[in-house]
Amino acid sequence: MPLASRYRAEPAFTHGQAAATGVLLCNLGTPDEPTPAAVRRYLREFLSDPRVVEIPRAVWLPLLHTVILPRRSSRSAAKYASIWTPEGSPLKVWTERQARLLQGWLGEAGHRVKVRYAMRYGNPSIASQLDALKAEGATRILVIMAYPQYSGTTTASVIDEVNAWAGGIRNVPELRFVRGYHDEPGYIEALASRIGGYWRQNGPPDHFLMSFHGVPQRTLHLGDPYHCECRKTARLLAGRLGLAEGDYTVSFQSRFGRAKWLEPYTEPTLRALAGKGLERVDVACPGFTSDCLETLEEIAQEGRDAFLTAGGKDFRYIPCLNAEPAWIRAFGEITARHLAGWPTQAAPDAQAQERTRQAAAALGATR
Ligand SMILES: C=CC1=C(C)c2cc3[nH]c(cc4nc(cc5[nH]c(cc1n2)c(C)c5CCC(=O)O)C(CCC(=O)O)=C4C)c(C)c3C=C
Ligand SMILES: [Fe+2]
Ligand SMILES: [Fe+2]
């Protein structure tokens, strides 16, 4: 009788294979479809993560299942439907494209690595893409997140998930994590090029608002560096754009639940700016490297309505970095720097291996 193993099945014989290096770009995740059922599946996984909601499980899980999921799934599905594209959810479309462009950039820079992308919640899952990299021969994997600012709610949750995967296999690859890049000159430069370029084409605004995703205020007092990192990104970006202190505001969006989140909140800030008589406000979301529900619906639609209803005249949303060439270059450079010291050899090519095996067998047959 075979011995039971506590590990999942994995490619068994890798000796003699070229050791490959993998890069996994992780983003938050998004529903598979803009339907209440698919949104519910996604929210259930997301909001059950103890890194995201720190309320004791015994209190939170019954509330989540009886109140939050039934109410929020259909409301959020309608919002997702308003931003959905023929190719799918914007977050997934941009993340997939960024991974492809990152692969191209690293290849041109001479790094032979396999780049894949994964979602912390939903598909493609982190475990499925780590399995795929491993099946492609990866013995070293660099994990980089779509989040420039570190937060226990996002970055650490990806790290948890990667480590949970490693706990389920026998032959664990060497793992590295890029913890964040909120003050990397290339990231700041790419943002400045995106926003400065927009102003050169369309003229500057009366005021510039940088809106970051919020987190519960309590996490700041418990040591989460997220708030400080957002403020630093904003300060560096404002400096690079040549803005004076009164020219811009930093705010936090997407509050969830009744607890206090990081302040000031974005929507009341937009109303206050309109109330001060500032007619043209531009909003960017530097903490999101790709457009998603939180930027396209919450800012570009709801934020615009709030500002115009409060008497503002001209609201302009400046899109995220997405596939901006300066960002792909900066992202490539950050990734390459974290690959340093790893020989980035070619990933084994299954067809080439088969040809070699057949050639070896043929040689053996003639001897
Ligand atoms: C419940 C608490 C939440 C915390 C804490 C939180 C932190 C956090 N989130 C992002 C980035 C994104 N969040 C997105 C959507 C989203 N966020 C929450 C809740 C929390 N986020 C919910 C419930 C949702 C789903 C949509 C909804 O029902 O409102 C997204 C967009 C995903 C998409 O599909 O487009 C992103 C991106 C960060 C960076 C962060 C902490 C730093
Ligand atoms: Fe969120
Ligand atoms: Fe939101």
From TrEMBL:
<feature type="binding site">
    <location>
        <position position="213"/>
    </location>
    <ligand>
        <name>Fe(2+)</name>
    </ligand>
</feature>
<dbReference type="GO" id="GO:0005737">
    <property type="term" value="C:cytoplasm"/>
</dbReference>
<keyword id="KW-0627">Porphyrin biosynthesis</keyword>
<dbReference type="InterPro" id="IPR019772">
    <property type="entry name" value="Ferrochelatase_AS"/>
</dbReference>
<dbReference type="GO" id="GO:0006783">
    <property type="term" value="P:heme biosynthetic process"/>
</dbReference>
<dbReference type="InterPro" id="IPR033659">
    <property type="entry name" value="Ferrochelatase_N"/>
</dbReference>
<protein>
    <recommendedName>
        <fullName>Ferrochelatase</fullName>
        <ecNumber>4.98.1.1</ecNumber>
    </recommendedName>
</protein>
<dbReference type="GO" id="GO:0046872">
    <property type="term" value="F:metal ion binding"/>
</dbReference>
<dbReference type="InterPro" id="IPR033644">
    <property type="entry name" value="Ferrochelatase_C"/>
</dbReference>
<dbReference type="Pfam" id="PF00762">
    <property type="entry name" value="Ferrochelatase"/>
</dbReference>
<dbReference type="InterPro" id="IPR001015">
    <property type="entry name" value="Ferrochelatase"/>
</dbReference>
<dbReference type="GO" id="GO:0004325">
    <property type="term" value="F:ferrochelatase activity"/>
</dbReference>
<keyword id="KW-0963">Cytoplasm</keyword>
<keyword id="KW-0456">Lyase</keyword>
<feature type="binding site">
    <location>
        <position position="294"/>
    </location>
    <ligand>
        <name>Fe(2+)</name>
    </ligand>
</feature>
<keyword id="KW-0479">Metal-binding</keyword>
<keyword id="KW-0350">Heme biosynthesis</keyword>
<comment type="function">
    <text>Catalyzes the ferrous insertion into protoporphyrin IX.</text>
</comment>
<comment type="pathway">
    <text>Porphyrin-containing compound metabolism; protoheme biosynthesis; protoheme from protoporphyrin-IX: step 1/1.</text>
</comment>
<keyword id="KW-0408">Iron</keyword>
<comment type="similarity">
    <text>Belongs to the ferrochelatase family.</text>
</comment>
